[in-house]
């Protein structure tokens, strides 16, 4: 029992220590997600201000500050809170013979680093795309995902407005994806993570950009805006599920971009009754009778 307690406490304290060292610049710059998140956010926000797609939208749009809180809560505070539980599960799985390498289908360690990063990125993005569809497809999961779709004016910080339960859905499947790749992240995986943060910020920003011919590969603000549309194509439970890549939506026929004015109603039917504050948004999904 002490082994599990020690693992839990060690991981919890280690995450707090790493976060604090990030804040005071005592970690390598390329792994400093605290200031990296701030830098990316400021750059994309500045582009929103200089090149606004919806010119009538305020710089400090509706729920700007709440979304800013969501960014740091989900990226750091919740990560600290849950880190001990993830480590505890890792120790438990190890005791019953399930290790990070036991499900490996491929060994990337002998591949060139650039190829490791590309495969790592593609696998993780597909897993997230698939999980995202599940969040829309099943009512139990949709109750939590509604938090993200309660955004009424799109801006970069909306990227990380999501219910903390989504971490519990995404994390195991992303971990499974890593296990398939030999149970490890490439040495320079920080490149993938920072790229994903930047693309996610752009996708939710008030900037009109499609990446030109790359729109069939990379997700973009025009495409993702329709993912948040109040009115969805009849017979669907969502469109444009891509996280970083639009590729999966085009392959599986879930793409939908009818026009590109940017002036569409966002949200979901019944969102006028959805809680408007952080606390009640994060307790909503646990209430009985919610559909």
Q: Which structural traits does this protein have?
A:
single chain, mainly alpha, 10 helices
Secondary structure layout plus pairing:
Elements: H1 2-23, H2 33-50, H3 64-95, H4 113-137, H5 139-149, H6 165-180, H7 190-203, H8 221-225, H9 247-252, H10 278-284
Helix pairs in contact: 1-3, 2-7, 4-5, 4-6
Classify the beta-strand content into a percent band.
under 5%
Structural class category: mainly alpha
Arithmetic mean pLDDT: 89
Oligomer category? single chain
If helices are DSSP runs of H or I spanning 4 or more residues, what is the number of helices?
Answer: 10
Quantity of strands, as a count: 0
Radius of gyration, CA atoms, in whole angstroms: 20 Å
**Percent helix:** 40-55%
Explained architecture:
There is one protein chain. Helix 1 (2-23) runs antiparallel to helix 3 (64-95), helix 2 packs parallel to helix 7 and helix 4 (113-137) packs across helix 5 (139-149). The protein has helices at residues 2-23, 33-50, 64-95, 113-137, 139-149, 165-180, 190-203, 221-225, 247-252, 278-284. The model has no long low-confidence stretch (mean pLDDT 89). By secondary structure, the chain is mainly alpha-helical. The chain is globular, with a radius of gyration of 20 Å. It is built from 10 helices and no strands.
């Amino acid at each position: 029992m002490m082994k599990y307690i020690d693992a839990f406490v060690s991981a919890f304290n280690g995450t707090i220590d790493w976060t604090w060292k990030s804040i005071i610049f005592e970690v390598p710059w390329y792994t400093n997600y605290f200031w990296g998140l701030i830098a990316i956010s400021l750059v994309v926000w500045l582009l929103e201000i200089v090149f606004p797609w919806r010119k009538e939208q305020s710089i400090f749009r509706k729920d700007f500050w709440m979304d800013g809180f969501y960014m740091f809560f989900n990226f750091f505070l919740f990560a600290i809170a849950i880190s001990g539980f993830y480590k505890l599960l890792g120790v438990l799985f190890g005791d019953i013979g399930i290790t990070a390498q036991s499900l490996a289908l491929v060994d990337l360690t002998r591949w060139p680093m650039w190829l490791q990063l590309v495969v790592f990125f593609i696998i993780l993005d597909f897993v997230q795309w698939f999980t995202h569809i599940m969040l829309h497809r099943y009512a139990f999961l949709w109750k939590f995902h509604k938090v993200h779709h309660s955004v009424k004016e799109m801006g970069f910080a909306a990227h990380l407005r999501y219910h903390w339960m989504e971490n519990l859905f995404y994390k195991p499947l992303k971990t499974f994806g890593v296990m398939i790749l030999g149970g490890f992240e490439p040495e320079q995986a920080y490149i993938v993570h920072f790229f994903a943060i930047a693309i996610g910020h752009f996708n939710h920003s008030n900037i009109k950009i499609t990446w030109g011919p790359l729109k069939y590969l990379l997700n973009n603000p025009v495409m993702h805006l329709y993912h948040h549309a109040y009115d969805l194509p009849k017979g669907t439970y969502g469109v444009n599920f891509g996280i970083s890549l639009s590729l999966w939506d085009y392959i599986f026929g879930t793409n939908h971009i009818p026009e590109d004015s940017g002036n569409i109603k966002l949200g979901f039917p019944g969102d006028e009754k959805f809680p408007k504050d952080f606390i009640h948004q994060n307790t909503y999904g646990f209430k009985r009778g919610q559909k």
